[in-house]
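Format notes (please read before filing issues)

Several people have asked whether sequences and structure tokens are stored in separate files. They are not. Every record keeps both together, in the order shown below: the sequence lines, then the token lines. Line labels are part of the format and must not be stripped during preprocessing.
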Amino acid sequence: MGAKRLVLGREVSLKDAGLLKKEAGVEVELFIHGSMCMAYSGNCTISNYTQGRDSNRGGCAHSCRFEYSFDESDQQATFMSSKDLLGLHLLPDYFKYSIDSLKIEGRMKSALYAAKTAKLYNEARSFFDE
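Then the structure lines:
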């Protein structure tokens, strides 16, 4: 249908991304750094429900990172919060599977954050280009 690049969700494994690239014969773009939302492919409603902010339109309040309880007890936990994606140590695998473009989360981040994070990955990439 003329697609030149697949922009894959954060839940897609590197192995599956590499397979898609090989089988479809198109470029693949994949996240390497940023928040891992508890929603599937970013289809979140909890931020909208708890804060009235639409996370699917850039207004995420990170409600999934708050503490909640299952009952009326005082015991609370962050059971909906996942670990963030820090793919720096996985960089060789991104090269192994020939991922064409690496995505770094930038929405709702400062320009300084985006610049420093991109610089870090760019500098690390130079170790594997040789």
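For reference, the curators noted about this record: Helices lie at 14-24, 46-51, 91-96, 111-125. The mean pLDDT is 84.
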